[in-house]
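Key idea: predict the complex, not the pieces.
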Amino acid sequence: MSTAPMLSVDNIGKSFRGLRAVNAVTFQVPRGDIVALIGPNGAGKTTTFNLIAGALPLSDGRVMLDGRDVTGLGQARICREGVGRTFQIVKPFAGLSVVENVMVGALRYDGGDVAKARAASLDILNLLELGDKASLPAQTLTLPDRKRLEVARALATRPKLLLLDEVMAGLRPVECDRMVAILQGLNRETGLTILLIEHVMRAVMALSDHVVVLHHGEKIAEGTPSEVTSHPKVLECYLGEEHA
Amino acid sequence: MSAAALLSGRGPRLLLALLAALVAAPLGVGDYALSILIAVLLQAYLGMSWNVMMGFAGQFSLGHALYVGLGAYASGTLFVHFGTSPWIGMLAGMAVSAAVGSVIGLLGFRFKVMGVYFALLTIAFAEFTRVLFDHWGWVGASSGLVLPVTNRASDDLWLLRGSPTMFYYLILAMTVGGFLFSRSLLMRRIGYYWQAIRENEDAADALGIPVFRCKMIAVAVSAAMTSIGGMFIAFFSNNLFPESIFSMHRSLELILGPIIGGVGTLFGPILGAVLLTAMGEAFTLMGETIGIDGVKQIAYGVCLLVILILKPGGVWPWLRTRFGLDGGGK
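Result:
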C-alpha cells in the first residue's frame, strides 16, 4: 500500500472570467480519513468539489489521487480512477427506478452483468435504508431519499474516495444521525475515504477527523473539529468580527 | 429471462396472440388489407429504429430519412448495376448508414451540438444527401432508380422478387426482429447507459460512463437498423426517387408513430403505427363519404393534437398501466 494521501490538492484555483472562485487552495485527505470542507455560502466549496471530480477544468494547480496525477482528466475518467461524487442539487435519473439508478453505477463491474449489478445495487440500497423503495420510479422520491440515492449511486461505482456535497441538508436530526452512522460504518468497515461538504455542524462534528474551512475561495483554517470551531478567523467569517 | 417467465402475464400472452394473428393474416385478408398491414409494419419498424436513438439514448434526430434513403439506394443500386442480392446490399447499406450516422454524431457530440440544434444538423445532412442523389447520374439522379420487375410467378427470397405476401412476411419478420433486438438492447449494459444519458448526461458522466462512445453507438445502431427499412422500401416499391426517399416529410412521418405510441417504450412505436394508419384509413373513408376536400387532413391533425394533449407520454404507457400489461417490457 502506498503511503501517499488518498487525495492531495495542491494550490488549485478557478476563475470564472474575472471572478476568482477558488484561489490557491491546498489540503490533503489521508487514506481512510473523513475530512469535512466547511465555509459560509459562496465560499467555493462546491467549486472545489467540481475541480477535484473533474466536472470543471482547473485554472491552475494539481490534483493527486492515491499518488496518481489526475489533473485535467474528465469527470468520467476521474470516476473510473476511483472518485465517487454526489451532487448538491440532486440529479436522479428520474425516469428509471431507484434500483436502476444505482445499477448504472454498478454496471462497470462484472463485465456489465445486469443480474449481478442489480444484486449489488440492492445491497447498497439496503445499506442506505432505501431497499423497500427499490422498484419505485426515482422521480417519486422525497428530497432526503434523493440525497440517499445520490450516495447509493456514487457507492455503486466502488470509489476509493467519496465526495459528498451536502447530503445531510433537509434531513431531520434522526435521519441525519442515521446517515452519520452509515457513513461511519462504511469508513470503518471498508476503509472508504470521505471528503464532505456540510453545513450541518452536528454531522461535521460527529464524522470528521479533520476540517478544512474555506472563505471567499481561500483556505482560512484547518484542524480538528474543535480546533476550527474556536479559530478566530472562522468565528469572524461566520458570526462577524465582534464575536471573534 | 427464462422462456416461461417471458410467456407469463397478460401482456406477453396478448403479444403472442397478436403475433399469431399477424402470421395467419395473409390467409384471410385481401390484397388491400395486406398492403395496409405492410404499411403499418414498415412504419412500426422504422419507428423502432428511430426509438433506439431518441427513445433510449435521448438523441433527437429529425433526419432519419437519410438512413432510409442510404439503405434503399445501397441495396437498389447494387441490384440494378450488378444483380447483387439485397441481403448483401443490406449489409452495405447498414455499413454506409452507420458510417454517415457516426460522422453526424462525431460533429454533434464532439462539439456539444445538443437538442434541437442537433436535430437541425441531422436535417441538414438528410437534405444535403437528397440534393447529392438528385444530381448523381449513376444512381439515376432526379429521374429515379427503377428496379426491374421479373419472375413474379414465384417468390425469390435471395433476390427479393416476389408477391406481396412474401414482402408481408419479410416486414413482419423485420418488425419482430427489431422488437426483440430493441428489447435485448434495453436489458443490457448499453441500454442502461443510454437511459442514464437520456435522463441526465452530467450525472451519467459523473458515474464514469463513456458518454461520447455510448451516444456514437446509439446513432450507428439506429442508422443501421433504419437502413434495413430502406432496403425493404426499395425492393417492395421497385422505384426510388431522392425527392421522396430522403424527404423531410418521411423523417417526420417516421417519428410520429413512436411519439403517439410512447417514445422510449418497446411497444410504443408499434402501437403508434397501428393508431396512425387506422386514423388515416378511417378519415380517408370519412372524407370520401362527406365529399369535401381536406376533411381527412383536418380530422387527422385534430386527432393527433388530442392524443398529444391527453397523453403527452404516448398512448402505450397509459394503456400498460391502465390494463396491467406489464411484463411485456417497457
